[in-house]
Amino acid sequence: MKRRDFLKHVSLAALGSSVVRLSAAQKRIAFGGIQIECSTYGNILSRMEDFTIRRGPELANSRLFSGLQNYPHPFMPVLLASAVPGGPVERTTYEALKTEFLGRFRELLPLDGVYLPMHGAMFVERMFDAEGDWISAVRDLVGPGCLISASYDLHGNLSRRVIDALDMLSAFRTAPHIDREETTRRACDMLVHCLEGGIRPTLVWTPIPVLMPGERSSTLYDPAKRLWAQLPAMNARDGVMDVSLLVGYVWADEARATASAVLTGTKPAALQKGALALAQQYWDARTEFAFGVPTGTMGECITKARALGTRPVVISDSGDNPTGGGTGDRADALAELLRMKVSDVVVAGIADRPAAEACYRAGVGKVIPLKIGATLDPQRSRPVEVTAKVVFLAETDTIAERQAVVAVDGVTVVLTARRRPFHQVRDFTSLGLDTTTFKIVVVKAGYLVPEIAAIANPNLMALTDGAVNQDIEHLSSRNRVPTYPFVRDLRWSPSAIVSARSPSETGRD
Ligand SMILES: [Zn+2]
Predict the structure, then answer these.
(1) What is the pLDDT of residues 59-78, one digit of tens each?
(2) Element (H, E) at 55
(3) What are the strands, taking DSSP E only, across 156-201?
(4) What is the pLDDT of residues 358-384, one digit of tens each?
(5) Is-contact 157 262, C-beta < 8 A?
(6) CA max distance for the chain
(7) 248 C-alpha to ligand 1 centroid (Å)
(8) Omega before 207 cis (within 30°)?
(9) d(CA 119, ligand 1 centre) in Å
(10) Cα 137 to ligand 1 centre (Å)
(11) For the packed helices 91-107 and 130-142, what is the interaxial angle rounded to 10 degrees?
(12) Residue 460: alpha-carbon gap to chain centroid
């Protein structure tokens, strides 16, 4: 495509009515990707309707990426498909998203740089290393001369295929994740710096055969706290452009599922030294990883909460946490609360569209029989049959956004039409619920995000069953490589893998 044609195409296809004028010094950069975390232990598929897809200007103007327009080079938006974590991605959905993504990318060629905001723990039906498939397809499209920078979630899994297709990588440094903006900026600053300076960086990866759930590796607590705290200082060293340490994703029965240390920069020896040191430290700390809050069965947590003189005690129903890949339709917590005749408690929420619909049909104030739970995964979940009074219905024109609040004996239950977390206080207040008035608040979550953590007085984690069961030692596996804690007496010493794209591997500067 001639340059003039390219500019015309960019202004019309990618940025709507806004005209992009590229000076001779400006670089052509495109960005987009796919973000989902998939439990291979989940029985429900993630389908097209589960993805939020932002294209063109909608992506460019979105909260996380609007800052990209401040760079002296236009970041041209392609497509970003993101979803609440869940089960495997339906193969046809993946193929359709990938085809559209690559088609839109192709229209923007030639490119100097690409930014891929990814998660890193996608699992697609009948496919291992899905990010490897996606990212290598981008590499094939843009050619070897283009620089590709990716950002990853801290819980992403890497592979040789991914590393060999990338030039640079930045991962979140916090869990709970409060550094999304900073990570995006690190990945894009590095990309722009390399493009402007004509730098082809070196990417070094050291996989670490340790798998921990996020709930045992939160950066709020040691050992993760001290491991991650040193990254900024390491990043400031000469020849180091980025330092990332990834926990990986334990509910992925894949050979690539491990923790990782990844460094990007211009001095291979320093990068390898840093990656090996970080990996060794992580390995040495493997027996220290532990839950940051008290844990127990749901029954034990309820008993403990009742005995405490504080409120609200927030109990995490961790095995069914939709933001970790849980199904979100389980009613076990409700069943246990009813069995123990607990009142003054809210359960938020249970994904159950049929029950929510029944509430909307009945209307506020009506008392109706309801079967709650097990609508998404009837194989593994068990429903609870109750008589419920409808107390609140969310006003919305979108069926998927419907939420009903019902009272079942002393238990207040939120029924949601779609799988969703309750991460913010307004998720409750918008339904007429004041969390501070309840003795117990049960949420489907693992570790709490800051806003809910702030109201928890205190937080207890129930180690419940589900697609993201925290009892990881008993997870079945056919594909995992020998990894701690599954192999408790594993012996290991770190070795650094240099991307095939790195100058030291290809002989190029
Ligand atoms: Zn994560």
Answers:
(1) 999 999 999 999 999 999 99
(2) strand 51-55
(3) 168-171
(4) 999 999 999 999 999 999 999 989 999
(5) no
(6) 74
(7) 9
(8) no
(9) 8
(10) 24
(11) 20
(12) 22
